[in-house]
Specification:
The complex is a heterodimer of chains A (about 375) and B (about 260).
Chain A lengths: L5 E2 L12 H24 L7 H17 L2 H6 L8 H4 L10 H30 L2 H10 L8 H34 L12 H27 L6 H32 L4 H11 L1 H25 L4 H32 L6 E2 L12 H21 L4 H6 L1
Antiparallel strand pairs in A: 1-2
Chain B lengths: L4 H27 L19 E6 L8 H10 L10 E11 L2 E7 L17 E10 L7 H5 L5 E3 L5 E3 L9 H5 L6 E3 L4 E3 L5 H4 L6 H5 L5 E5 L6 H8 L15 E4 L7
Parallel strand pairs in B: 1-10
Antiparallel strand pairs in B: 1-9, 2-3, 2-4, 5-6, 7-8
The chains are: A mainly alpha (about 375), B alpha+beta (about 260).
The complex binds iron/sulfur cluster (SF4) (2 copies).
Chain lengths: ~375, ~260
């Protein structure tokens, strides 16, 4: 263990407190926020190109949202007391709002999904028998009004809801950034840019995930891909990548330029501890390569298959790059000592309450949820009509 | 009964809000007895005191008795790298025009220190005992999401072990590395200035164990207390003053290398 420590760390720092599970937490909420914002491109901003994936994006957001609390609760010393955060929140804590913001957002997402699927639900309730009828009638809340007017009202309400949804998605995730950004004890975390950086990377990761899931679903269902929709998503991905990289670089550059007391340890962190994951994965593979690929996609004419491959590669890289970004923040910040005189190394364990195995399990669950809910609420109606 | 969707939604909202508010109220009434609001039992009145701590680094000889006494007194696990108080050693070696600072605190200094740099190379060396600063503006209290970490009326920062959820945000929030995770309790833990002793008129274990009087404890409200006597005449510093935490552990003879 000793050899993993360089310089002097406070004796109590030998143990890394926030492990890989806490890396997952902002990663997952980021995917949620990103997917939701992608869907609101259609629902709020009326970007018709996005329509084929708009409802799928909502289901994706919900699937990940449902597991977002898991890594947190699993890592608590007293998981059974976790609910106290709702009953007796201590309001000066950036963490205390989590329960409320999370619940509020969950309600918004569920309502939004309900409204945009209501017509289908009612039709399915009316056209099926037995347990299926019961299921869909239940989902329809036993109200079967799908007249022109009712649907129009639904749509209006859904739009209003999505308008509330955007700031709450932004808040949900910007707020996660503040959990880190508000810690003055840690020079690698403490920056007012943190919430914005988190938000931008959330949006990129959400859009990239959506692209991948969309392509995968179409392949699985052997349906043609809507290239217009795909390119539009790729376009937004590219724009948000630019915003993201600007903020991320701004943070590091201003730290280096101002060269405060902590700069030596930050430099060591960047050049030694997280050099590969920061410059290599987060910035290089996660931002630079996709940026160039997507730029080419934008310039190229025709050659749809090649473009699709380039977009897929970019999306995979972005999803990995954003994970690296979460890692660099959460783990990187704990690999420097608050004595500013030393560093330590986090060695993940595989089998343990806070190990890699539970992390993998938690990351797989949303895909299973998504698989199940797309069976119950098929989001592809519009597509099928067209194909 | 045939409810329209709108009415249905309205009623639903009311039920949810009502239920949440109701539980929250009952819960807060039930937990109002938590330690944060009550003076310790007995004839001790916490309104009459405001504790402070002083460390004279010039006196410390690095014997580590304080750190040992603390682990014994407070059942701090001996076989884990966790400490409520520890002693750091600073050795400054000349390297041409550059100075090289070596800091260490093997096992928190409990077993003392060994000489592994030849004495003739060392320009300057000193020990610095560390402990929770019981900050007046404590970031650990600020960040605790459930209020399990709190400041007492008599100026001590404590953890309510029956309430702490073990999220470890406070450990991240303390700039001094004063907190650790107690694996037995599943909660955050740290120095209490031996609250069980000081409320009975005794001294903290570390202060009592120090053979050279480098650690001084006393009531800041009492002008005659040993801490105030020293504060009155010495030049004082605290750790990381720029963070605005307002520590109540005061240092005499603090070197610029100490963070
Ligand atoms: S030294 Fe750390 S643990 Fe102690 S009161 Fe200050 S912030 Fe809290
Ligand atoms: S570990 Fe306990 S005391 Fe510390 S912030 Fe979390 S709940 Fe509060």
């Amino acid at each position: 263990m000793e050899s993993l420590i360089w310089g002097y760390i406070y004796p109590n720092e030998a143990e890394i407190q926030w492990s890989i599970l806490i890396v997952l937490y902002p990663y997952i909420t980021g995917l949620v926020a990103g997917a939701f914002i992608a869907s609101s491109l259609y629902h709020v901003f009326g970007k018709k190109e996005i329509k084929p994936v708009a409802r799928f994006a909502l289901l994706t957001a919900l699937s990940f949202l449902l597991v977002a609390t898991l890594p947190l609760v699993t890592h608590l010393g007293h998981p059974e007391r976790g609910i106290e955060i709702m009953f007796t929140p201590h309001l000066t804590s950036a963490m205390s709002g989590f329960g409320y913001i999370y619940s509020f957002y969950l309600i918004v997402v569920v309502l939004e999904i309900w409204l945009s699927f209501r017509e289908d639900i009612v039709k399915m309730a009316l056209n099926s028998r037995g347990w299926k009828e019961l299921l869909y009638s239940g989902l329809a809340l036993f109200s079967y009004d799908i007249s022109e007017k009712a649907l129009h009202d639904d749509e209006k309400f859904a739009k209003k809801l999505a308008i509330i949804g955007i700031p709450s998605a932004a808040f949900l995730h910007g707020y996660v950034g503040f959990i880190f950004g508000g810690i003055k004890a840690n020079p690698w975390w403490s920056t007012p840019l943190m919430p914005l950086i988190f938000l931008m990377s959330a949006i990129v990761s959400g859009i990239a995930l959506l692209i991948l899931l969309y392509l995968a679903s179409m392949k699985l269902r052997k349906h043609a891909i809507d290239h217009k929709c795909l390119h539009s998503l790729a376009h937004y991905l590219w724009i948000f990548l630019i915003l993201d990289v600007t903020l991320e670089l701004l943070e590091v550059i201003s730290m280096k330029y101002e060269s405060l007391e902590e700069i030596e340890i930050i430099n060591r962190l960047l050049s030694d501890k997280i050099a590969t994951t920061f410059y290599g994965v987060q910035l290089g593979l996660g931002i630079f390569v996709p940026f160039v690929l997507l730029l080419l996609v934008g310039i190229m004419k025709n050659r749809e298959t090649l473009k699709m491959i380039m977009i897929s590669i970019s999306s995979v890289l972005v999803v990995i790059g954003v994970f690296a970004m979460r890692w660099n923040v959460v783990i990187g910040g704990q690999e420097i000592s608050k004595s500013l005189s030393g560093t330590l190394t986090y060695v993940p364990v595989f089998f343990s309450q806070e190990g890699v195995l539970p992390a993998i399990i938690i990351l797989v669950i949303p895909f299973i949820i998504l698989f199940v809910i797309t069976r119950i609420l098929p989001p592809w109606k519009d597509m099928e009509e067209k194909v | 009964m045939n409810l329209s969707r709108r009415e249905f939604a309205k009623i639903g909202c009311r039920i949810v809000i009502g239920a949440t508010a109701g539980t929250a109220m009952i819960e807060s009434i039930a937990t109002n007895g938590i330690a944060a609001e009550n003076s310790p039992k007995g004839d001790y009145n916490w309104k009459e005191h405001y504790w402070g701590y002083l460390i004279d680094t010039r006196k410390c000889i690095g014997c580590g008795r304080c750190a040992n006494a603390c682990k014994l007194e407070n059942n701090v696990p001996f076989d884990e790298p966790v400490y409520r108080t520890w002693v750091e050693r600073y050795r400054i070696v000349n390297k041409g025009r550059e100075e090289n600072v070596t800091i260490d605190s093997p096992n928190g200094g409990i077993n003392g220190f060994t000489d592994d740099i030849p004495a003739e190379q060392i320009k300057k060396a000193f020990y610095v005992p560390k402990i929770c600063n019981h900050c007046e503006n404590p970031p650990c209290v600020q960040v605790c999401p459930v209020g399990a970490t709190y400041s007492t009326e008599d100026g001590v920062v404590l953890v309510d072990y029956n309430y702490c959820i073990g999220c470890r945000y406070c450990i991240q929030g303390c700039p001094y590395g004063a907190r650790y995770f107690n694996t037995e309790k599943g909660t955050a833990d740290k120095c209490t200035w031996c609250y069980h002793r000081i409320t009975k008129g005794l001294q903290p274990a570390c202060v009592e164990a120090c053979p050279v009087g480098a650690r001084v404890f006393g009531d800041l409200k009492d002008p005659e207390s040993p801490v105030n006597k020293i504060l009155d005449k010495e030049r004082i510093n605290v750790l990381k003053p720029d963070l605005g935490t307002k520590p109540k552990v005061y240092y005499v003879g603090l070197d610029r290398e100490v963070r």
